[in-house]
Design brief:
Layout (H helix, E strand, L loop, with lengths): L5 H9 L3 E7 L13 E7 L5 E4 L3 E7 H5 L6 H5 L2 E5 L3 H7 L6 H23 L3 H21 L19 H10 L2 H17 L3 H5 L4 H6 L5
Parallel strand pairs: 2-4
Antiparallel strand pairs: 1-2, 1-5, 3-4
């Protein structure tokens, strides 16, 4: 066990108000380096949430009720957290409940990707480079969450996506680097095949041909 965590966890074990503890962030995914903080969450049954930040360790106190009903922005962190202490099983159950991702949410992610793809290509065609590049970049966030989520588990934050996007990862990276509309078209064609294979053709068809039209745009 990391020596920064040991005294905190030993005290947590003795504290009757602490239900459990878990790691979030890069260290929970074994991706931490010398610049990575340790983000340790102590789950308390009663009391006010709080944070204590040291040079390398941040200790977050969260209520059990809070982690059982987390805000949407915390779901990726909770879905990939690592439980270090669980006195009752409630902490593990709460975190495991955040991992699955359902069809409705996946469909929304795919639609959001298509929306930003569509608007990026229209911006490129109109010569609005800044908007085109911003929308291209944002489209990839939705796309990454969609592609990873097709495996049934919610995606982590983008810093942990490397190696998780399958055969499309090199092309996703090139679009991220360049925003090139032709590469975006190539990527979208490949995404369409993947999405259709997984039963999301209805999301594409709901665009009533708009995506097909921007796929026909020609760029030099």
């Amino acid at each position: 066990m990391n020596e920064l965590l040991r005294p905190v966890l030993e005290a947590a074990e003795r504290d009757p108000n602490v239900v459990g503890a878990y790691l979030m962030g890069s260290h929970a995914l074994d991706l931490g380096d010398e610049e990575s903080d340790w983000d340790l969450v102590l789950v308390i049954r009663e009391g006010e949430p709080s944070k204590e930040r040291g040079p390398q360790l941040e200790v977050i106190r969260a209520t059990l009720a809070g982690i059982q009903s987390p805000p949407s922005w915390q779901l990726p962190a909770h879905a990939h957290a690592r439980v270090l202490l669980d006195k009752t099983g409630e902490v593990t159950a709460a975190l495991e409940a955040t991992r699955p991702i359902g069809r409705d949410e996946l469909a929304e992610l795919y639609d959001s990707y298509l929306n930003d793809f569509y608007r990026s290509l229209k911006s490129w065609r109109r010569g609005r480079e800044l908007g085109a590049r911003v929308k291209a970049g944002r489209s990839l966030w939705w796309l990454g969450e969609f592609l990873i989520g097709l495996g049934g588990t919610r995606a982590p934050y983008p810093g942990a996506w490397t190696g998780r996007l399958g055969d499309l990862e090199p092309l996703v990276l090139e679009v991220a680097r360049t925003g090139d509309p032709r590469l975006q078209q190539e990527l979208q064609a490949a995404v369409e095949r993947v999405a259709t294979r997984h039963g999301f053709r209805d999301v594409y068809d709901a665009w009533d041909g708009d995506i097909d039209r921007v796929m026909e745009f020609e760029f030099r």
